[in-house]
Structure formats: structure tokens, C-alpha cells
Amino acid sequence: MSFDALTLYYEPGSPPCRGVLMFLLENGIPHKIQRIKLFEKDHLKPEYLRINPFQKVPAIQDADGFFLAESHAILKYLIRTRASMVQDHWYPSDPQKRAKIDELLDWHHSSFSWSSKLTVWNAVMVAKFMNQPQSVNIPVVEFAVGQMKKSLGTLESILDKGPFMIKGMEQPSIADLSLFVEIESLRLLPSNVLYYTQAKDRTCSFSLTEYPQLCQWLDRMRTLKSYSPVHQSFQKVVSMLQSSQLKNGYAKI
Questions:
Q1: Which of 105, 192, 212 is nearest to 152 (CA)?
Q2: Which top CATH class is 6-86?
Q3: CA-CA distance, 242 to 253, in Å (whole number)?
Q4: Out of 1.20.1050.10, 3.40.50.11090, 3.30.565.10, 2.60.120.10, which CATH number does the structure's domain 95-247 have?
Q5: Smallest Cα–Cα separation from 185: which of 115, 130, 101, 96?
Q6: Strand 67-69 to strand 59-61: parallel, antiparallel, or no bridges (unpaired)?
Q7: How many C-beta atoms surround the C-beta of residue 132 within 10 A?
Q8: Where in the numbering of this chain does the GST C-terminal domain appear (predicted)?
Q9: What digits encode the pLDDT tens for the residues 124-155?
Q10: How far apart, in Å, do the first and last CA atoms of the chain sit?
Q11: Domain boundaries, given as residue ranges, for the chain
Q12: Among 12, 119, 213, 245, which residue's Cβ finds the most Cβ atoms within 10 Å?
């Protein structure tokens, strides 16, 4: 069965957007990309609010005009509607494996995603790119980093049981994909998370190297064919930030 191309409303700086695009590319699902520039407030314009009233990215419009937002919902919709194109390992038909994937996806949003996004948004986007270091609430960032580290420790222990996030699976699932793009975004952080803020003399250390199993898993996920094309612009930003930090005496992440 052939499918007409769907439209993905996309911002390359958004981890959930990158996750959906990687999934589309991995499974050869026809699509078109419509860029939504968050810094230009495209997500607040009336024409986009008709597509996604939640004012976020990603969102999709299927060929029949159906709109859907939220990355996890989009991934499951694509699996159900493009079943003939999607490899089983992404969301296995086995009910127990599928349930464990759902469990991890729910945990991702309730326990990990908020702390990761809060940290990156304040410590990098607001303090560095928006040049508003005075606007960063330092205690909030420090709390978020602590919670983020706890979540990464949980994932580190899960990976003691196998190469991917779901025990007994030898290939990645959509839970791996969703977590991967989130954790990959942490490469934007300097080794002292407060480096770009007005409290840069305070230490709030972070390094993914503290999680060796997680680093090996990240390397496995980076071998996916969709990784490089989706992360080209992201990698340029990471390289720019790391170069700036090295000039000022900070090690790479």
C-alpha cells in the first residue's frame, strides 16, 4: 500500500520534533516538512493554532486533513496507520513489550522530560541565546539538574539489563528514540550548568560521562541512518558552544 505524504510541523531545535523525523526517515514514511520558527512565534499564529491549539511542536497533518500533536501520540498513530511500513521492533506486537514501552514513555514525560527541558531552556536558551542571564532562576535550575541526574541514574540502571531500554530487545523501540533525542539535547549544557548565567562562579556540575552505560547506548542510537541528517544543525550548535567553553577554560561536555 502506498501513502500520500503527511506534513510534519517541525522545529529542528525541538527534541520531540527530531524524534518524529528520525522515525519517519527510519521507516521510509513519505512526508513534507513545514518549519515552525518558535523564536518568531510561529506556534502562536492563528493558522498554526488551528493545527495545534496546544501551541507546541511537533504536529502532523495527514493526507486526509487529520491533525495530531504530541510526539508520543504521533509515533503511535504512524505505527497504526503505516503498519506495513514500520518495523516491528519500534512497537512490538507482543503485549508485554508494548506495555513496557508505554510505561517508559509515560515515565519520560512525568519524571524526566520536565527537568531536562527546564535545565536546557534556562541554562542555555535563556542565558546564552536570548542573552538574558539575569532572568534565570538559579535555585530552580539547580533543583532541575538534581532531578535530571536522578532520572539519568534510573536509565543507567535499566541499561544494565540489555543494549536498549526494553529488556530482551536487541533493537531500539520508540521509547529509546524518544529518550535519545531528549538526552542528546543535554550535550548543549556546559560542564558547569550555570556557566552562562549570572551565577557562573557557583558550581553545578554535569557530565554524561558519569553514566557509562548510557553513553554506550547513545553511541548505538547514533548509528541509526536517520541520526546524521536530522542532527546536522544541532551538531553545529553543540560544536559552537563547546568551542566557546574551551576558550574560557571549560572542558567539552
A1: 212
A2: alpha beta
A3: 7
A4: 1.20.1050.10
A5: 115
A6: antiparallel
A7: 13
A8: 94-250
A9: 999 999 999 999 999 999 999 999 999 999 99
A10: 45
A11: 6-86, 95-247
A12: 119
